[in-house]
## 1
Amino acid sequence: MKVDWQRAWNAMTEATRRVPGVLTRISEDTAWSIVHYAQELATEELSDATTYNASFEVDVEPMKASVRNVHPAALYLEEGTKPHLIFPTKQALRFLGREKIVYTRWVRHPGILGHAFLGVGRMMAEATLLEIVGNIGRELIE
């Protein structure tokens, strides 16, 4: 069997030229998958996840994508907090106690456990990506 080396070389050159664009699209799709999974988790866990879910940003560069949440409480929701004191920004804190409105100069917050929405979303998206790459590899071999 005679091989057309010029045709093979041209096909390889074309495939190599297209790889960065394909990898960039895969990176972007994976980043948006992370956002999607994180939003689903947040919706399940939080009483109102509307502003948190609207605060995701995805930056895509050639063959690289990054995901972040710019919500003011995103770090606390992701990593949690230790017990801490809360002081008012004005004169006093006001909240509804057991039966009446309470005013105080500070409160002891018990802290919260982190939810790791982005971390879990990343793991879920990676599993999906590995499955896609495995399928592509099997198709190329067959």
## 2
Amino acid sequence: MNSPMNLFGSLIAAAALSTPSVLFATPVTFADHDVSAKSLADAPKSMAAAAAFDTAVGAVPIINFDTTTFGNGVHSTYTNIVDATACTPALGGALDCGYNTTVGGSKFLLDLPTSQFNGIVTFSFDTPVDAFGAYFTGWDSNGHNLTYTTIGGATVSLPMPPGGPSNSVGGTAFFGFIDPGASITSVTFNAMGVFVKEAVSIDDIRYRPLASLPPAPVPVPEPGTLTIAGLGALAIGLYRHKRRQQTLF
């Protein structure tokens, strides 16, 4: 005679075969670039990527370096906020150095590497975020990358759009990502020069603090969980009914 536990185990095994597996979130990126673009008017692909990112994250804080700068819980290891006059011929001029992307603005963050292969700038957040995006201009080299770190210390490195051909000068890119459920405390951009120091400018930084998200919904049992619970109750009920019949006869 089968015990209720044996019957229950058999029913669980059968139900498990129909229970969907759990899917884990992965970063979603929004990225594109326009070779040699010297303004957003010449950068339709970058603007389209930015629009897609903005639609996905909703209304979020933006640092444009004209009316908003670092502060309010956002910090940077590099604070070289400049206007176009900083892009001297020694840096390749305005086209190669980058430009402002804020409508009606003039300032941007100029990431000027201290060595040929090291142009690192890190943004840190007192309130963790799960999304980050920005315009990058003076975008004419390959190998740039962006890395973010979570509260638990995990790091994720994301490749960024390529630059233009070897003879191109300047360029524009938008790069953004969303990592649903992540608690990101810092984002690091590394500008990689190829033959010379690579000056890259950053503007209109968007980020989504976790505190701005709506409360998480109350968990609802998966259909498979309900099925297993129901089958378990059924197995116990059948067992008790059979025992009752045996007692009567």
## 3
Amino acid sequence: MTTRFPVLAVFVFAQAAAAQSLANLWSATVTVKGVNIPFRMEFSGEGSSVTGYFFNGDDKVPSTSGRFDHGALVLEFAHYATELRATLKEGVLEGEYASARRSYAFKARTFAPPPAPPAAVRYMTPTPPP
């Protein structure tokens, strides 16, 4: 009975790792001439079928096709003649965003809103007696 538990545990953890999902808002950068350009991306989908969205102001620009298999992401943006290829490892997507002529380093991690500023501190000033 003790030998079954480790085998079962390995199977369960392997299934969880294979079922990673990108569905979320992500903070991303592309590196152009040594400068990191930040932007937000969003992913949706189920199983290996995924859609990625770039944000252009308030507009969401969807990928025209996309797959996410075993940690490897491939998104096509046919209207820009570009492709995003990245690998998910330890919560970070890393790869490249490329056209036929150029490619740029790409990196993203799940978006985390900045922490709220500390609550305002109220100072009481003594009021002179009447």
## 4
Amino acid sequence: MPSYANNHGTVAANMYNAGIQSLVDLGNRYSDNESIGGLVAGSLADSFRTQAATGQALAYNDAFLGSMANYQGGMENLRTGNTMTLMAAEGEIATNLMDTQGGWQIRGIQTTGDQQRQGIQTTGAQSRQGMQTQGRQDRLGIETTGVESRRGMQTQGRQDRLGIGTTGAQNRLGIQETGAQQRLGIQETGAQQRLGIQETGAQSRLGMQTQGQQNRLGIKETGAQQRLGIQETGAQQRLGIQATGTQQRLGIQATGAQQRLGLQTAGSEERKNISSRMTQELRARADARGAVTRAGSRFYG
């Protein structure tokens, strides 16, 4: 009978061994007593039957729980696979949407920059053409005004000279007619008067010619200074328009580059976040399956 004892070192096994040993010792002590022998044999038989029933129940539970574990493991694997497929599809869709949106934004920025550059070039060309046309008109007006002024001064000088000549001739005729009666007393006076009139006329003509030349020189100098001022102003305006166009093009290029970098950075961070979330979820599922496996091991061990 000592072979029936359980050799495991747990508290339950020790108590079971002590009980069986006590029954065996009781049967051995009263081996001649049939009642005690029957009690010991019945108790041992009941214990053996209980062990057999417990082993059968454990085998049933092992088979049932193993089947359930396989079923749940297959379901978890299927759900994990479906989740991974869905997350991969969502990540691909998000990546395609971000790539498409970034491409459209880049095209819009490029189109806007091209239109702005074309508008700036057209405006600059029109401004330069307008300035050139205005400068031509101003120069033509100054030249026309100078020509007309010179013609007017020349005509006025001719008329003045003709008037002086006519007046002198009339005076001479009048003096000669009057002096015909008084030639003896008036010849010397008339000669002096004619000489004085001639000298005065010559001085007047010289003064008018000098004044006309000075006026013509002043008009030429004024026209040259105005043309130089108009040319210098047009050159400065063209330089300002070119500098403004260059700065605007540089600003548009810098803005487009910054926007493209921002879109690329946002897309990269979004993909990193999706990958991190997927990794964390896979680790959580692996930890859950590990916990279920450890719990089953403790239950069956």
